Amino acid sequence: MLSDAILGWDVGGANIKMARIDAESRRVTVVERAFPLWREFDRLPSVLASLEGGAWHRPVMAVTMTAELADCFATKREGVAFVVGAFEAAFPASTLWIYGVDGRFRSAEEARQQPIDVAAANWMATATLVARATSDALLIDVGSTTTDIIPIVRGRVAAEGRTDPARLRSGELVYTGCLRTPICAIVRSAPLGGVWCRVAAEHFAVAADVYRWLGPIGEDDYTCDTPDGRGRSRSDAGARLARMVCADRETLGDADVTAIADHVALAQARQIAHGIRQVMRRLGAAQPRLAIVAGSGVFLARAAAESAGLTTRDLSAELGVDAARAAPAAAVALLLLELMSTGRR
Amino acid sequence: MLSDAILGWDVGGANIKMARIDAESRRVTVVERAFPLWREFDRLPSVLASLEGGAWHRPVMAVTMTAELADCFATKREGVAFVVGAFEAAFPASTLWIYGVDGRFRSAEEARQQPIDVAAANWMATATLVARATSDALLIDVGSTTTDIIPIVRGRVAAEGRTDPARLRSGELVYTGCLRTPICAIVRSAPLGGVWCRVAAEHFAVAADVYRWLGPIGEDDYTCDTPDGRGRSRSDAGARLARMVCADRETLGDADVTAIADHVALAQARQIAHGIRQVMRRLGAAQPRLAIVAGSGVFLARAAAESAGLTTRDLSAELGVDAARAAPAAAVALLLLELMSTGRR
Question: Which of A122, B72, B242, B313 could make an SS bond with A64 (beta carbons 3.0 to 4.6 A apart)?
Fold first, then answer.
């Protein structure tokens, strides 16, 4: 084998994740970095190179992306071409395989020609991997920004939608996540002094502030930018939540902030549960009873799955904690390794 | 009279409006400028000075603000003090009067001491002015960012709430506007190919894109930043709307974009109508039949008022087009002029 590692990449509009599989030991390690691509897209090649670290001999690259949706690109065609080009610029000596929504890998040239085939295919990679081990389940992967709800029926990925718009319609993609989602995209109002209060339609606070205030995430897990450029402490998060009802911490006590945060957390779990129920309805008799939960918002995936009556199992139990947080990156690497071992692609 | 003009200011977090009343002719002229205060607050004194133009002899200043809510300030106290300080720095020779939610003007020092009394009082100024001419009406002022719904009963402002949080609860403040409001804060889904499609919880498109696409606003009316930094043409607006369902203009036709825009426009009018009905319910037998509509989103105010069964009259018919667009700025100037003429404050 010419290459000593396989690198799996999941390039999002706000985060880049890389999973490395050592060709000898088959050990998986994950590197992750918040990167606001829409703002600094010119830097993508150098960010990729720095994540890779240069320690490997001609690593083979498996790539999946959702970054093509970022609004620095006029179309997905432009976005896919840009991301593929960034990999070619960063790793001229590496072979590049782009994962497609049909589960096949494509060359850089094929990806450029048919961008829709490789746009936002990361969910398919994770689901394909999960389907190897679990014949009937709902994969629920809550990331920083979006949630994937993918049915696996009799060992096969049984998704209805392939493209983002089709998946938003089928309930398989719910555009809500545990960090970056603006509060005003989750709720229209929140309790304040026992009365419903409309919220500000402003980017004053995000989901990360809710979970930072309530506990499930720590300062280091708050990897996205803060809306106001201030800190990631619990107190900073509370001030941002107070501003959602046009108040401040001079006028709102801890209990007031907790009431707002509790309401938003519940509403977000319901929003995901709504997607789960839509997917389940379509499956009819093939409805699984088990949810495999994953992602940086695994706590939210679990809450939503349980509220929809599913038993849950953590993907981390199967893949390890790191790989489960960055599941698509690990999945494309593992799937490519498998193909290379069997000689198919 | 030592001063040859009265200047009324409405300093928002995203827009600054100045109305000038010539002391002799009593003519009102309005100057307006989009200014993202939260990003460039240091520049506020120089922006104020440039709007004023330096052509007046010791003008008297009437000030109202909502900028204290901007998230560059930790609290409203900090925000009010900053804005007042910016006026003092820009116009050291001018007398400054800050309008309060109780309809009284305060000195800079009083405003600093009791910031809550002067925070977000702009609606009170417009309503007080309207109440001079119209004894029973609902004032509906739809701005770029927010909507005020203020009842006037028997010639008096009959608002229930005074602070922003109280007004968000009473329905008198609906945090939605015709330009800056993110689409994801208006709708959770939109029609796409005859099926409901969830929307992206991203700042991909704003209300201005909807009204630019549908027609009510022209390129010059789109005064806020575009979410993607691209242009303000109808075609640019359409591309942003397509992105809301994670699509692009390669895959979405004009009719698809129109269906999305129509749905958002209807939902926003309903959101305002919901506030109108809440305010009306409280008024009981005192419910007015007339709505005085104003603001840069007057078309939206009219649609919401009509859907709630009210007859509408444009504030511009009374104040002139410019003054009606920047009603609070014109109102504080006119109210201060009136006080100076009668010798009270």
Answer: A122
Closest CA in chain A for residue B166: A197
Predicted local distance difference test score (pLDDT) of residue B1: 47
Whether B278 shows a pLDDT value over 90: the answer reads: yes
| Chain B interface includes A240 (CB < 8 A) | yes
- Label each residue of B19-39 as H, E or C: EEEECCCCCEEEEEEECCHHH
Q: Which of A48, A132, A126 is nearest to A87 (CA)?
A: A48
Tens digits of residue pLDDT in A243-254:
999 999 999 999
Instruction: Please tell me the predicted confidence (pLDDT) of residue A112.
Output: 97
What's the pLDDT score for residue A69? 95
For testing the chain B interface, which of A73, A76, A175, A249 should be mutated: the one with the most B CBs within 10 Å?
A175
Q: What value does the CA radius of gyration of chain B take, rounded to a whole number of Å?
A: 20
Provide the pairing of β-strand A156-157 with A147-153: antiparallel
Using CA atoms, how far residue B85 sits from B6, B40, B81, B119, B238, in Å, is 19, 15, 6, 15, 41
A31 contacts chain B (CB < 8 A) = no
Helix (H) or strand (E) holding B15: strand B15-22
A116 touching B, CB under 8 A? Answer: yes
Lowest mean pLDDT among A53-57, B99-103, B148-152: A53-57
Chain A residues inside the 8 Å CB shell of B196: 169
3-state secondary structure at position B174: strand
Q: Which candidate, A35, A326, A30, A10, places its Cα nearest to that of A180?
A: A35
Would you list the DSSP string of A167-227? Answer: HHHHTSEE---SSS-BGGGT-SEEEETTEEEE--SSTT-BHHHHHHHHSSS-GGG--SPPT
Task: Using the predicted structure, report yes or no on whether residue B197 has a pLDDT greater than 90.
Answer: yes
Q: ipTM of this predicted complex?
A: 0.95
Average pLDDT of the residues in B150-168:
97
Ramachandran area for residue A325 (φ above 0: left; ψ -120 to 50: alpha; else beta): alpha
Average of per-residue pLDDT across B245-263: 97
DSSP string computed for A88-148: HHH-TTS-EEEE-TTS-EE-HHHHHH-HHHHBT-HHHHHHHHHHHH-SSEEEEEE-SS-EE
Q: Tens digit of pLDDT for each residue in A209-228?
A: 999 999 999 999 999 999 99
pLDDT digits (tens, 9 = 90+) for A139-168: 999 999 999 999 999 999 999 999 999 999
A-chain CB neighbours of B169 within 8 Å are 192-193, 195-198
What is the value of pTM for the model shown? 0.95
Of B185, B220, B188, B189, the C-alpha closest to B205 is B185
Instruction: Please indicate whether, in this complex, the C-beta atoms of B165 and A246 are within 8 angstroms of each other.
Output: yes
More confident residue, B211 or B341: B211
Q: Are strands A60-65 and A96-99 parallel, antiparallel or unpaired?
A: parallel
